[in-house]
Design brief:
The chain is α/β, with parallel strands linked by helices and 219 residues long. The protein has one domain: Alpha-Beta Barrel (TIM Barrel). 30% of the residues lie in helices and 20% in strands. An 8-stranded parallel sheet has the order 7-6-5-4-3-2-1-8, with helices on one face. Strands 9-10 form a two-stranded antiparallel ribbon. Helix 1 links the parallel strand 1 and strand 2. Helix 1 packs parallel to helix 7.
Length: 219
């Protein structure tokens, strides 16, 4: 069974076209200004307009005030909101109720204890995204897209109440192993298809798509 996949942090027409040609299930547009993948509203609207029917447009926000989300949605067509900061379950519920869009909530993992956060968040989100928590000594770490992974064995046998997506340091080369260990049915990639932070490579996107189609959770 093919693994559904998201190409996140798309910030150019070339990258979006590559994701479209790769038949990505989701494409992520980043609205966190410190990120090298950040998009202004006008550029995001232009890229979102390229997305064909059936491909989900995900807007990624990090501890953004609700008015910022509202202003973005006024101009950019989005299908899903992804919250990738320190948003509380109460904040997630409020955003979901206010904007009427499905919400992906990122949960960052470093130790098995971090999985406890998932229980509270899955009660209010439509989907979880498991990402790697940056180590304390990592300088200049972003909320996501740091090209680091966590111990995938933490998710072996994981059965949550909501669908979930695997993220963090994935590439075409390690995707099959990650899926085999975790049983992930959906995956997310950003840095793993870049030549440098913020620059997506069409060939790497195509390779990741091929790896996702070849991978599948163990039965």
């Amino acid at each position: 069974m093919a693994v559904r996949f998201k190409i996140c942090g798309i910030n150019s027409e070339t990258a979006m076209q590559a994701a479209i040609e790769a038949r990505a299930d989701f494409v992520g547009l980043m609205f966190y200004p410190p990120s090298p993948r950040y998009l202004g509203v006008a550029d995001a609207a232009r890229l979102a307009a390229m997305v064909p029917k059936g491909m989900q447009r995900v807007g990624v926000f990090v501890d953004a005030p609700e008015n910022v989300i509202e202003e973005t949605l006024d101009d950019v067509g989005l299908d899903i909101l992804q919250l990738h900061g320190s948003e509380s379950p109460e904040a997630v519920a409020a955003i979901r109720a206010r904007f009427g869009l499905p919400v992906i909530r990122a949960v960052k993992l470093a130790t098995p204890d971090d999985l406890a956060v998932a229980k509270a968040q899955e009660a209010v989100a439509d989907m979880l995204l498991f990402d790697a928590k940056p180590p304390p000594e990592m300088t200049g770490a972003l909320p996501g897209g740091n090209a680091i992974s966590f111990d995938w064995r933490m998710l072996a046998g994981y059965r949550g109440a909501k669908p979930w997506m695997l993220s963090g340091g994935l590439t075409a080369a390690n995707l099959a192993q990650a899926v085999a260990i975790t049983g992930a049915e959906m995956v997310d990639v950003s840095s793993g298809v870049e030549s440098r932070p913020g620059v997506k490579e069409p060939a790497l996107i195509a390779a990741f798509a091929a790896a996702a189609r070849a991978a599948g959770p163990a039965s």
